[in-house]
Fold this sequence. Notes:
This protein is of the alpha+beta class. The protein has 5 helices and 9 strands; from the N terminus they run αββββαββαααβββ.
Amino acid sequence: xxxxxxxxxxxxxxxxxxxxxxxxxxxxxxxxxxxxxxxxxxxxxxxxxxxxxxxxxxxxxxxxxxxxxxxxxxxxxxxxxxxxxxxxxxxxxxxxxxxxxxxxxxxxxxxxxxxxxxxxxxxxxxxxxxxxxxxxxxxxxxxxxxxxxxxxxxxxxxxxxxxxxxxxxxxxxxxxxxxxxxxxxxxxxxxxxxxxxxx
Length: 199
């Protein structure tokens, strides 16, 4: 393993350690991150997503491709993520390209979702104008009756995406602002560098 590869692995392991620490300390939603995207006209948008895995291959999350974020990522497959754990006084930002994952990966994680979440993905088109609550509940009941005890198939719009980091920045927070920031940056040659930054 080269020093450049070791630097990237160090960044990934450091991020996972922060998530694990947040989890062990009872921080709510330790896997939640703000996902920033932009459409083909560079109009920005941001919302929270659940990052299911932090791996050397990149950060894995799921999107309904008919949603606003799904359409933006089809038009402009680059994004940024920002984790923030108030209790740890830590944040991490990442930027990079977005890569669609295989059907097998999407199916694997779909099976891990609760049945209620699976049914909701079919019954409620994300971002569409919502009917009243009674109608929504009726749609779910009808779908449950149709399926019976069968497994809920994955909605074809529910896809696995991976952010391939090109920049990872650890930015400790806190009132005193004397904690050093660290930036891991992938160069055009594919090599990673590490740089300490002022707060």
